[in-house]
Specification:
The protein is of the alpha+beta class and 400 residues long. The protein has 14 helices and twelve strands. 53% of the residues lie in helices and 12% in strands. The chain has a five-stranded antiparallel beta sheet, with helices on both faces.
C-alpha cells in the first residue's frame, strides 16, 4: 500500500504523467496549484495544446485552520464516489471523475476552466438562464434515484453504510446548528451585530426549530446528498451548469441540499442591496434571483413527482397522495435549512464573499442584519407553510 504524502506541483505533474494516460507519452506538461478552498490541494496539469485535467488531493487537516484541526482522508473516497453515482443519473450537471486513488486521497477530474464559478459571477451581477432548471434537475434526480422510492431496502442500507461521513457531518452539525446559537470561539461577526446576535441566541422558539432541523439532519437518511451545494461549488456558463466538491456527501434529509442552494441565492440577494448601486440593475438582479429560487423549487417538485409516478418501486410509497405529502415536507425542510445557511454564513466561521466583499463597513453591516433577520424568520415560519406556494409567499413577504 502506498503511503500518503501531500503533493507539490512537481509531484502532481509526475503522478498524472506516470499513473494516467490523459496525455501523449511525449507531451510537455506543466502544472500549478491554484486551490483556495478550506480543505484540499488543487492542481491544474496541462500540455502545450491546452489539454488539461484537475488533480485534487485531500489534506489530513482543515487548511483554513491548520494541523490543529485534523480531518479524515476518507473524504476523498466519499467525494469521488458521490460524483460517480450522481454522474450516473445526472451526467450533464456533474463534474466527471477521470481517475481516483483512495490511498493517496487523489481524484483527477475534467477541467472546468472554461466555465466560471457561480459565486463570483453573481457578485459581479451576471445572470445565467439555465441555472435554476439545471440545479432543480440535479437535485431532483440525484435525490430520487438514491431514495427509498427507487432503491430496495437492502441497496439503500448498504449505501448508507458506504457513505457514512461522520467527521465532515460533524463540521456541518457544529457550523449550521450549534455555533451560531451560542457563544463559540469559532463565531465571527462585528461588534455592531452583537445586540441582534444576543437576541437570536436568546430566542427559545428559534432554537427549538433549529433543534428540529438538526434532529432531521442527524436521523433522516432520505437520500445521498451532495452535502455542500453553495454557489462556490457550482460552475456555470450561458448553457451549462456543473456541480463539484461533494466531499460532505452522506445520506441525509433531501431538503438540505435544496435549502443550501436557496440560501446562497438569498445571501447574494441581500448583498445586492449594496453591491448594485443603480436601482434598475438592482431590481433586475433581485427579480432574477427570486425567479431562480421559485423556478428551482417548482421544477424540483415537478420532476420529483413525475419520477415518483413512473419509477417508484416500493408499493407502500405508491399510496395516492403520499408523494405530494412527502415533497411538501421536503420543501418546508429546505426553507428551514436555508435559514440556517443564512445565519451561519453571517455570524459563523465560514462567510461568503457576496457580503464580506462589500467594502463599506456600514453597508456590509446592514446587509448582515438583513440576512440574519431573513434567516431567523424562515426558520420560524416555514414549518407553518403547507405548499410551495405558501413558502413562496412567505419568502416574498420577507423580502419586501
Amino acid at each position: 500500500m502506498v503511503d500518503y504524502i501531500a503533493f507539490d506541483s512537481a509531484q502532481a505533474l509526475e503522478y498524472v504523467k506516470n499513473q494516467t494516460n490523459f496525455f501523449a507519452p511525449d507531451a510537455e506538461l506543466s502544472c500549478y496549484e491554484f486551490g483556495d478552498g478550506n480543505l484540499n490541494l488543487v492542481f491544474r496539469v496541462h500540455d502545450q495544446q491546452q489539454n488539461s485535467v484537475i488533480l485534487k488531493q485531500a489534506l489530513p487537516y482543515a487548511r483554513c485552520v491548520g494541523e490543529s484541526w485534523p480531518l479524515t482522508l476518507d473524504r476523498a473516497r466519499i467525494e469521488a464516489s458521490v460524483l460517480i453515482r450522481h454522474g450516473e443519473v445526472c451526467p450533464q450537471t456533474t463534474v466527471k471523475v477521470l481517475h481516483r486513488n483512495d490511498a493517496l486521497a487523489i481524484t483527477v477530474l475534467e477541467d472546468l476552466g472554461h466555465m466560471q464559478i457561480l459565486r463570483g459571477q453573481l457578485c459581479e451581477g451576471h445572470t445565467y438562464p439555465n441555472l435554476a432548471a439545471d440545479i432543480a434537475d440535479y437535485l431532483a434526480k440525484t435525490s430520487f434515484f438514491h431514495s427509498d422510492f427507487y432503491l430496495s431496502p437492502a441497496q439503500k442500507k448498504a449505501l448508507v453504510v458506504e457513505f457514512t461521513n461522520p467527521e465532515l457531518c460533524a463540521i456541518t452539525e457544529d457550523l449550521f446548528f450549534d455555533d451560531p446559537y451560542r457563544q463559540s470561539e469559532r463565531n465571527n461577526y462585528p461588534d455592531e451585530l452583537q445586540p441582534q446576535v444576543t437576541a437570536l441566541q436568546n430566542n427559545l422558539a428559534l432554537k427549538l426549530e433549529v433543534a428540529e432541523l438538526k434532529a432531521k439532519f442527524l436521523s433522516s437518511p432520505q437520500s445521498l446528498l451532495h452535502g455542500d451545494v453553495h454557489t462556490g461549488s457550482i460552475f456555470v456558463d450561458q448553457t451549462n451548469t456543473k456541480l463539484i466538491d461533494p466531499e460532505f456527501g452522506f445520506f441525509g434529509p433531501i431538503g438540505f441540499d435544496l435549502g443550501s442552494f436557496i440560501g446562497n441565492l438569498l445571501l447574494n440577494y441581500c448583498a445586492q442591496h449594496k453591491r448594485a448601486v443603480e436601482l434598475p440593475k438592482r431590481r433586475d438582479l433581485h427579480a432574477y434571483l427570486l425567479n431562480s429560487i421559485q423556478t428551482c423549487v417548482a421544477q424540483f417538485e415537478q420532476t420529483w413527482l413525475q419520477l415518483a409516478k413512473t419509477q417508484t418501486r416500493d408499493l407502500s410509497l405508491q399510496a395516492p397522495g403520499y408523494v405530494q405529502r412527502f415533497i411538501n415536507q421536503v420543501l418546508r425542510d429546505a426553507y428551514g435549512f436555508c435559514g440556517t445557511e443564512l445565519i451561519r454564513r453571517t455570524i459563523g466561521l465560514a462567510h461568503v464573499a457576496d457580503i464580506d466583499g462589500i467594502e463599506d463597513q456600514q453597508a456590509r453591516i446592514a446587509v448582515q442584519q438583513h440576512a440574519l433577520l431573513l434567516g431567523e424568520q424562515l426558520i420560524l415560519q416555514a414549518p407553518q407553510c403547507e405548499t410551495k406556494e405558501d413558502l413562496s409567499q412567505l419568502l416574498i413577504s420577507l423580502l419586501l
